[in-house]
Specification:
alpha+beta, Alpha-Beta Plaits, five-stranded antiparallel sheet, 5 strands, molybdenum cofactor biosynthesis, MoCo_biosynth_MoaA/MoaC, Mopterin_CF_biosynth-C_dom, Cyclic pyranopterin monophosphate synthase
């Protein structure tokens, strides 16, 4: 059996107060996180976006940029996150007619004492929200779903890969 202390929330001090985790003693390692999400929409909305005919401009390029910018500001959005000097953020957005909609994938990388899961999750979330914002005038029924960590590597807790 594993130590029950290993599974406790780490953002709480010994008195139960929320604190920023002290990562001073952790080793600097290369850390990567990949996350995904999706925006489901009407087939006509997807066709409009893919054809570049949205009145607000290039939805996919704008959402990609918004996701990258959001990852860089995660510590300003999520309480208790450490500010990180990200070495890479990539956001990919692909049409998926089986949804119908857009699949969003983000990868964040850093050499640090703490991981980048929150940065990759923030990138996906903001990219999805940007897609919704830019197309909501024609399709208010869009849904954002499936935002999750797919994989991570580096750090004390080891590697993780989601089960499909």
């Amino acid at each position: 059996m594993s130590d029950p202390q290993e599974k406790r929330l780490t953002h709480l001090d010994e008195t139960g107060k929320a604190v920023m985790v002290d990562v001073t003693e952790k080793d600097v390692t290369d850390r990567i996180a990949v996350c995904e999400g999706a925006v489901t929409m009407e087939p006509e909305t997807l066709a409009m976006i893919v054809a570049g005919q949205a009145k607000k401009g290039d939805v996919i390029a704008t959402a990609r940029l918004a996701g990258i910018m959001a990852a860089k500001r995660t510590h300003e959005l999520i309480p208790l996150c450490h500010p990180l000097a990200l070495t890479k953020v990539a956001v990919d957005i692909e049409a998926d007619e089986s949804l119908p909609g857009l699949k969003v994938t983000a990868m964040a990388r850093v050499a640090s004492r703490t991981g980048v899961e929150m940065e990759a999750l923030t990138a996906v979330s903001v990219a999805c929200l940007t897609i919704y914002d830019m197309a909501k005038a024609v399709d208010r029924g869009m849904t954002i779903s499936g935002i999750r960590l797919i994989e991570k590597s580096g750090g004390k807790s080891g590697d993780y890969r989601a089960k499909d």
